[in-house]
Amino acid sequence: MLTKVSHSINARLDAYLPERRLFLKSDRDTRFIRLRPFTQLVALSIGALSLGWMILATAILLMDSISAGTSREQVARQQSLYEERLNALSEDRDLRAAEASGAQARFGTALEQVAQMQARLLASEQRRRELETGIDVIQNTLRRTIDERDAARAEFLALNATGSGTAEARQRDVAASLAYVTDTLGQTAVQRDGAEKLAAEADEKFAAVASAKRALETRNDVIFGQIEQALKVTVEPLDQMFRDAGLDPESLVDAAKRGYDWQGGPLTPIRLSTRNEAPFAEEVRANSILLGLQEIDQYREAAFKTPFAMPVRTAVRYSSGFGNRRDPFGRGVRGHEGQDMAGAYGSPIYATADGVVTHAGWQSGYGRLVKIRHAYGFETRYAHLAQVRVELGQKVSRGDRIGDMGNSGRSTGTHLHYEVRIGGSPKNPMTFIKAGQNVF
Question: Which CATH topology does 311-323+337-436 take?
Answer without folding.
Answer: Glucose Permease (Domain IIA) (2.70.70)
